Amino acid sequence: FAGLADVSIAEDIPVEGEITVPVGSHSPDEDYSTLDEPVKDTIMRDLKAVGKKFVHVMYPKKSSALLRDWDLWGPLVLCVSLALMLQGGSADSKEDGGPQFAEVFVIIWFGAVVITLNSKLLGGTISFFQSLCVLGYCVLPLTVAMLVCRLVLLAGSGTVSFIIRLIVVVAMFGWSTLASTAFLADSQPPNRKALVVYPIFLFYFVISWMILTFTPQ
Amino acid sequence: GSPPQGLVDDTEDVSLDFGSEEELALRKAKIRHPLATFFHLFFRVSAIITYLFCDWFSNSFVACFVTILLLLSFDFWSVKNVTGRLLVGLRWWNQIDEDGKSHWVFEARRVPTRAASTEAEARIFWLGLIICPVIWTVFFFSTLFSLKLKWLALVIAGISLQTANLYGYIHCKLGGHKSTSRATSSFFVTADVPKRQERRTSEDHVEIHGKTGTR
């Protein structure tokens, strides 16, 4: 390699090619120069990636953003906000909502892990974290449903409010399931699609059930 | 450029150096990345302290849970993306190529750059990296045996996040040449534009081992 080093120093031989990779990835070279700038750049880039994924969930079509550039920030934020909104239910007026908060958390993450393992055991080609990423991001419609339900419950908790909540939750549940199926089912062989979709259906059904049966104190 | 200065006394440096005053000061400092060092320890230690003294801070379980979880997540992100790179020149990430196969890439900086890290920084990095998962494991057993099970999810999350970073960086450190050459060969197999290119950095010129590179 000593010969190559000489070649690149020499003036008459042009050095061609790109030094940094502009494809939205981290490039250690330009980040080594200063401390403040690149950290902000890294943060902004990650935030934009997360935002892009949220948009892709709301308009589900085949996108490589959700699948290839996976991250778990979105699922974390969604999980925490959903768990926070499910606080203050009538079941636990004595305690400070401790177990129920942790329950929602565990249900979402453990459920997602189980679905992922299931799809991997069925021979899926998608990787572990990609699947977690998709399942987590597709909780977004249900989080929106939870928000709407809480607002509706502020107005009153009669039959009308229940019907509104039911419609909203069912619609969002369908949206979540369709969105995640659109991303996940493709990675399976055709005769196994139903086997993969069923646990996803169950997962979002449980979350929808928690949302629908939420009654504030 | 200006001719390189021979620096016989300072063994930490590469021979190519332009020797401005600023850089001399930088080289002599024991800690060259004070902010990175601070943040490396700040999030981890705050998470542990909050967990230990959560009763003093707030009565609400939820507030403590969310705070500690956020601290752990910020710690994971900053150690993985920033402090490892700056303090010890190691980096690891996951990459999904065109076929949808996922690769774990472990990169180690071979030639120290101008603002290379010092021994003190490296020591702080590794100590912080190793001691905290151990502390969270201790918390795991204490939570289990004192039956405060509502904290168990949080402790497990803490252990997983911190151990993931520990494992990744140890793999980087020990993997060295083998891992990076495996990563390069996987780039050669998928002939499209690679998302990341392996590079060895010396002061001014960068050797690219991409699709047109030669070995």
UniProtKB/TrEMBL annotation, chain A:
It is found in: Golgi apparatus membrane; Membrane. Keywords: Membrane, Transmembrane, Transmembrane helix. GO terms for biological process: endoplasmic reticulum to Golgi vesicle-mediated transport. The keyword DNA-binding does not apply. InterPro entries: Yip1/4-like, Yip1_dom. The keyword Membrane applies. It is a multi-pass membrane protein. Its main location: Golgi. GO terms for cellular component: Golgi membrane; trans-Golgi network. Pfam families: Yip1. Residues 59-210 form the Yip1 domain. The chain crosses the membrane at residues 70-89, 101-122, 134-156, 162-184, 196-215. Belongs to the YIP1 family. This is Protein YIPF. The gene is Yipf6.
Automatic annotation (TrEMBL), chain B:
It holds the Pfam family DUF846. Belongs to the TVP23 family. The chain crosses the membrane at residues 59-77, 124-145, 151-170. Residues 196-215 are annotated as: Disordered. It is found in: Membrane. It is a multi-pass membrane protein. The keyword Cell wall biogenesis/degradation does not apply. One of its GO terms (biological process) is vesicle-mediated transport. Keywords: Membrane, Transmembrane, Transmembrane helix. The gene is Tvp23a. Its main location: membrane. InterPro entries: TVP23-like. This is Golgi apparatus membrane protein TVP23 homolog. The keyword Nucleotide-binding does not apply. GO terms for cellular component: Golgi membrane.
